[in-house]
Amino acid sequence: MRKPVVSSRVFQSLPCLHSFHTSSNLEKVVAGRVKVSKGEKPVTYEKANFPFQIGVRKSWNSHHTGNLEDEDGAAERTLEDFFIRKFIDGTLHQCLATDLIIKRRANRIFLVAIMLRRLPPQKFYFLIGYTEELLSHWFKCPVKMEVQIVDEKPIYKWL
What we know:
Blueprint: H1 8-13, E1 42-43, H2 45-48, E2 62-63, H3 74-91, E3 101-105, E4 108-116, H4 121-139, E5 143-150, E6 157-158
Parallel strand pairs: 2-3, 4-5
Antiparallel strand pairs: 1-6, 3-4
């Protein structure tokens, strides 16, 4: 078999498909900030403070000693926190008014949440007990939920 002969004229007539483009850097930080629009929008305390203000005006959403020097298990705790947040978001669907705060103290996990009154009190009590029991069984340590129920989302300021 013979290979087809391709002349160099064919390549010269094709448009350049691999060109290199550059543009100036925007230097604009928009991640984690609430977009200001026309009209007023209610904003909670968590979203009113910018991400660079964590540790200054705003606290962390997960409190544990895994980030200290010479401590192991920070990645495992982060994965556990992600699982806890997803589990509670699925169990108490659309009931969380603010972000969930996870505090770890001496082999105990405390879950602090502000929830909206969307279910009857009996269902809230059942789901809180259900969550505490299952998470205690999975993580092999006592889990306690501290819940406050409100009628509407707490508004920190209007943007």
